[in-house]
């Protein structure tokens, strides 16, 4: 026998007749053979395996895609890399479980096992043979076990807060607890021994406001043999506790009634429910008394409750809110500013699609009855969703922010003016730069008596090497003394204005101490008149 055929090669349908028994045996065991010639990218599956997936014998070709294209996308992420490792020579065999799609679209679980029977000199697989096993039933059983384990795990987490019991009431009213699970101590604050012969201790812990209802429902259940629904509070040393449970009654030959049931600690749930009800009461109270225009709305129907102040803002009668279609038609088509429709809808959509992760907050304009536009800030949150994740109920508030918007517009107006002023100053600075660089007359920029800029001509007039040498000098150096400078300021004094220039003839001093008569033309720059910023032209 050719060694390339190998032992597994005998079981393929196109081999010698002695393989038929092997193939039949494998089929009975739920195993189906395959043979893969890697270099030709050709693979042969038994016809029985094709039929297992619902394909007529011979319908499959021999390309590798007949296998790989049918692997479930989630399983391909692990199975294909494992098979590839075998092809690349990193391992000699593989075993992978994955789902294959049947002809009718259903999925079957299979276990694919393979072994390299021929390798190339470089160590890569040249030929593989293996078996396919139908493990759908095993996988389903495994998943059922996992689901059962999950249920048990969830139940075990709750067991410390649940106890099971038998409760017996005799004709005279005496009550006992023949059986109680260990959690009675944790849940009810008593031990099983304490209440086995007399349940009075249990009743003594029941909240006074609930004891009568508890006894009445127990008597009703005993008389009618109906399920006893328990819902009451306990007063324990560490605080109040809420219990809920059910018990199923059976009348005994002696006339007593025994209930088999359970009690569970639902304190956390009750507290959350109370908090939610308190919050809703606060919201509804706020809707009556606040001026913020609160609302509680059914998202699907549009029906809801709106504070009267909201109607006042719109100049509507409260009757509008009782006619859902009429109100929303008015809101979207007559009252809402056309420029704000898209942004408001987008705010709702983002909140709904994110399932509340993105907060609902929108600013928009509504036309009041007087005809003026009122700016509204709407903030809200969906508090109820259906099983498909669709919004059901939304609570929020409408706040009239018209005055705030007016202030914002005023601030924006001032910012625009400031921006315009900065642009003008930049333009002026650019013009001054050109002027300082190219004018044939001496120029200097003075700020609080110090020279901030000087041009080459000014340096020449006063006998300095270059303009940089004059930067930072006090203008007092250009006058004979302090008194001469004060005389100069007295002359120019109030005549210095941002809009017009002033011209004077004055005696100035050079760097070497010599004096000369100069013609000065100057003006205050319009940045900050209190800062004493001026520009001067000096001509000898």
TrEMBL record:
EC annotation from Swiss-Prot or TrEMBL: 2.7.13.3
InterPro entries xrefs: PAC (IPR001610), PAS (IPR000014), PAS-assoc_C (IPR000700), PAS-like_dom_sf (IPR035965), PAS_fold_3 (IPR013655), Sensor_kinase/Photoreceptor (IPR052162)
Positions of the PAS domain: 179-225
Residues forming coiled coils: none
Enzyme superclass (EC): transferase
Keywords: Kinase, Phosphoprotein, Transferase
PAC domain location: 94-147, 360-413
Any single Pfam family the record assigns to this protein: PAS_9
SMART domains to which the protein is assigned, alphabetical: PAC, PAS
Catalytic activity, as annotated: ATP + protein L-histidine = ADP + protein N-phospho-L-histidine
NCBIfam families: sensory_box
The protein's name: histidine kinase
Species assigned in the record: Undibacterium cyanobacteriorum
């Amino acid at each position: 026998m050719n060694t390339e055929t190998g032992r597994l090669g005998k079981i393929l349908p196109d081999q010698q007749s002695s393989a038929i028994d092997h193939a039949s045996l494998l089929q009975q065991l739920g195993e189906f053979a395959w043979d893969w010639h890697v270099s030709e990218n050709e693979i042969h599956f038994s016809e029985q395996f094709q039929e297992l997936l619902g394909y007529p014998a011979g319908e499959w070709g021999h390309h590798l895609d007949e296998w790989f294209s049918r692997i479930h996308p989630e399983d391909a992420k692990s199975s294909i890399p494992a098979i590839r490792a075998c092809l690349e020579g990193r391992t000699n065999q593989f075993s992978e479980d994955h789902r294959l799609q049947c002809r009718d679209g259903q999925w079957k679980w299979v276990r694919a096992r393979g072994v390299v029977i021929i390798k190339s000199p470089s160590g890569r697989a040249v030929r593989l043979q293996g078996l396919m096993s139908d493990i759908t039933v095993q996988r389903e059983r495994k998943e059922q076990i996992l689901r059962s384990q999950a249920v048990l795990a969830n139940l075990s987490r709750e067991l410390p807060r649940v106890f099971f019991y038998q409760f017996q009431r005799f004709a005279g009213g005496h009550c006992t607890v023949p059986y109680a699970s260990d959690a009675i101590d944790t849940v009810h604050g008593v031990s099983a021994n304490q209440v086995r012969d007399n349940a009075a201790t249990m009743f003594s812990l029941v909240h006074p406001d609930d004891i009568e209802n508890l006894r009445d429902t127990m008597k009703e259940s005993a008389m009618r043999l109906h399920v006893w629904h328990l819902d009451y509070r306990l007063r324990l040393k560490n605080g109040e506790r809420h219990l809920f449970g059910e018990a199923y009654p059976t009348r005994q030959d002696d006339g007593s009634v025994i209930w088999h049931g359970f009690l569970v600690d639902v304190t956390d749930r009750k507290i959350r429910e109370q908090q939610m009800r308190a919050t809703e009461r606060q919201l509804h109270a706020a809707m009556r008394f606040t001026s913020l225009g609160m609302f509680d709305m059914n998202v699907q129907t549009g029906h809801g409750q709106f504070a009267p102040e909201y109607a006042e803002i719109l100049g509507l009668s409260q009757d509008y809110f009782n006619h859902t279609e009429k109100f929303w038609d008015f809101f979207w088509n007559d009252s809402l500013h056309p420029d704000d429709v898209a942004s408001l809808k987008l705010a709702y959509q983002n909140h709904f699609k994110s399932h509340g992760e993105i907060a609902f907050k929108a600013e928009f304009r509504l036309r009041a009855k007087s005809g003026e536009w009122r700016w509204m800030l709407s903030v809200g949150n969906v508090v109820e969703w259906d099983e498909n994740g669709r919004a059901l109920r939304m609570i929020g508030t409408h706040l009239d922010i018209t005055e705030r918007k007016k202030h914002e517009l005023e601030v924006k107006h001032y910012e625009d003016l400031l921006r315009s002023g900065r642009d003008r100053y930049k333009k002026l600075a650019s013009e001054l730069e050109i002027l300082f660089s190219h004018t044939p007359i001496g120029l200097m920029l003075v700020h609080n008596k110090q020279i901030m800029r000087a041009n080459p001509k000014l340096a020449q007039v006063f006998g300095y090497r270059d303009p940089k040498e004059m930067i930072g000098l006090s203008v007092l150096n250009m006058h004979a003394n302090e008194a001469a400078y004060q005389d100069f300021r007295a002359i120019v004094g109030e005549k210095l204005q941002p809009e017009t220039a002033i011209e004077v003839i004055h005696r100035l001093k050079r760097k070497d101490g010599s004096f000369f008569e100069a013609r000065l033309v100057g003006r205050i720059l319009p940045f900050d008149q209190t800062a004493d910023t001026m520009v001067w032209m000096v001509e000898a």
